[in-house]
Specification:
With 211 residues, the chain is an alpha/beta fold. The protein is built from five helices and eight strands. It has a five-stranded mixed beta sheet. It is elongated, with a radius of gyration of 24 Å.
Length: 211
Amino acid sequence: MDDGGGPNTARRRAGRHAAVDEVGGDLAKVRVRTAIARTALWCGRVLLAASVVLVVVCRATRDTWADGPFDDAGFAAHGIPSLTMVVLFVTALTAPLTLLPVGSAVLVRVEKGGLTVPTVLGRRSVPCARARGRVLTLPGGGFGLSLLVVSGPRGRWVVVGSSSVWGAEDSARPLSTAHRAHPAIGWLVLAVCVVATSAIHTAGGVAAGVY
């Protein structure tokens, strides 16, 4: 019988401490992932706002830089159009994440029978009872990225993203009806994103008066 100070008690205490440390470590990781996801949302909002402001400023000040000087590529060598086009490029590159209802799995919440996902343009909710999920894998699977496209009634839909790099568990696990989309769909989505990136960047340049 253990007297309270024997090896069995020591092992139990060590086990409890290890379990507490493991839980504490997991909570710390969740906090870090949550903070990064929320920061990314705000960065997306700032990026969209900055793009609009720069396009307006660039267009309004066109008379000050339109006559040159120009660089070797024929573009105006002026800070305003240069900065505008750089920001527009980043905006176009991240447009699928900022303009579409895309959110991080670590921010997903189930509230009042609905799946709520914070996105750059606001919260998007889909009723869980009638929701359907389909896992979309992009070509190459960079950074272990996994996308769950959740669709509901009346055309409601949202994309929940997670990455194995962060070890993030899929918060949309209650959607047991999720299926894996055909690999060709991933290629199609990637092709559409590439075309959209070029189109948005070009349209922004035209609106800013650079093209």
